[in-house]
Amino acid sequence: MKSIKVPHTLVLLFSMMIFAYALTWILPAGSFETSVDANGKELVVPGTYKVLEEQKNLPVWSVFTVIPRALGEAQGIIFFLFLIGGSIAVLRSTGAIDALLGKVLNRFSHQPAMLLFMAMLSFTLGSTSIGMAEEYIPLVLILISLCVALKMDTVSAVATMVVGYGIGYGTAIFNPFTVLVAQGVAGVTPTSGWEYRLILMVPLVAIGFHHVWKYARSVQLDPKNSLVYDVPDAQPPAASDYPELNGRRKAVLFATLGALILTVFGIAKFQWYFVELGAVFFVLGIITMLIAGKNVNETAQTFISGASELTGTALLIGFARSIELILTDGQVLHTVVAGLAEPLSYVGAELSAVGMLLIQSILNFFIPSGSGQAYVTMPLMAPIADLVGVSRQVAVLAYQMGDGLMNMIVPTNAVLMGILGMCGIPYDRWFRFVWPLVLKLLVASALALVIAVLIGYQ
After folding, report:
1. pLDDT, tens digit, 9 for 90 and up, residues 274-322
2. Residue 241 pLDDT > 70, yes or no?
3. Which residues contact 156 (CB under 8 A, 6 or more apart)?
4. Domain ranges (residues) in the chain
5. Beta-carbon neighbour count of residue 125 at 10 Å?
6. Which are the contacts of 105, defined by CB distance < 8 A and separation ≥ 6?
């Protein structure tokens, strides 16, 4: 497998764009009627799908013109990444993060499994409660430094974060961007059923951690077991002596902690997003410079260098966003949704619940936005659930598991591609690591859905 030459991630994404373009010529154009809810969001109306009389065949050049459009639509996360990259570069130049890691490793280096488990659990809890995802991106470089010191690789670091947040979204106990949206669309009491989702989080986290730790441990024992052993861009910086945690560095760390607390508070209280979060981290960079007593011009250069390192990542995000735009422009996205959903009305309750999981998993490739997927699919899944004797709560559970767990593997997920790009991990190497885990988690989720049907989960 390692001898096979796999194209660059950008090439893979462009190939998927061409495939999406081909679908606009193969599939019939169609759409559902839509309505607007109290929040101004468009919902599809069940039973209204129809094939359009005029097929809107896109010109060949639309494959190319969609790219700058997609970059424009993804500008929020792209510019957020640039600000994050610059600010983290300034932060790291003070030595504060390395000094903190030195302290942590001196105390817990003999318990690497505990360190990784606590990190993964933290990401899971942040995602399952308040829907954190993009906010984790600044922490990936810190995780890499930690894993290097523990003789692990960049895949181990990324896996700790991505698997944690994927399972968090998959269980989504109170996630306001997925489960609460889906429950609102389906007419289910908001936050209801959280007890069962909390119970499910335990085995899913256990499965995820076992997979990550097994791989990380194999790299510890033999670095050649790393999936990115032969990838220069994915090699982390060599571990070095850690600087002293002096007063200035402690002050920098407290400022960073304050920024993180402010971020969490802003998300939970004021629904902050990329604009506000980017501003917070830019201000953090300025405060860091003042505390550390660094030269203004040198700090500016450090900031620009840190931001420029994420240019490739920004392009990957834009190309990933292009796939959904092509399907929408060609008016076949609703055709895909309708074609996948219709067979569910002909099977029994248990199979219907598992089928919903598979459909949501597939649709996450085409509609990577969790809330966007809820607005498109839940108006269809809720009536189907009524028809086959499945509670709407089960339909919501199938949606959130399909959406959340597939976040770990679909190349149209901007957060995933952003993190992989920052770490220099080719998508094919990540896919090789994560697909067995996703398969195990989907099997466990299917079993959980069957149990939910049998116990009358409401």
Report:
1. 788 889 989 999 999 999 999 999 999 999 998 888 788 788 888 888 8
2. no
3. 116, 147, 212, 215, 216, 219
4. 9-50+58-73+96-242+310-454
5. 16
6. 146, 149, 150, 242
Cβ atoms within 10 Å of 400's Cβ, excluding its own: 28
Angle at 386 between CA 382 and CA 391, to 5 degrees: 80
Q: Which of 102, 91, 92, 93 is nearest to 245 (CA)?
A: 102
Could you read off the pLDDT of 331-368 as tens digits, one per residue? 988 888 888 887 887 888 899 999 999 999 998 888 87
Token pair 């509670």 is found at 391
Q: For 63-100, how does the pLDDT look when each residue is reduced to its tens digit (9 = 90+)?
A: 999 999 999 988 888 888 889 889 888 988 888 877 87
Give the residue among 121, 154, 315 at the shortest CA–CA distance from 223.
154
CA distances from residue 119 to 140, 172, 262, 287 in whole angstroms, order as listed: 11, 18, 20, 27
| Whole-model pTM over 0.90 | no
Distance CA 131, CA 277 (A): 14
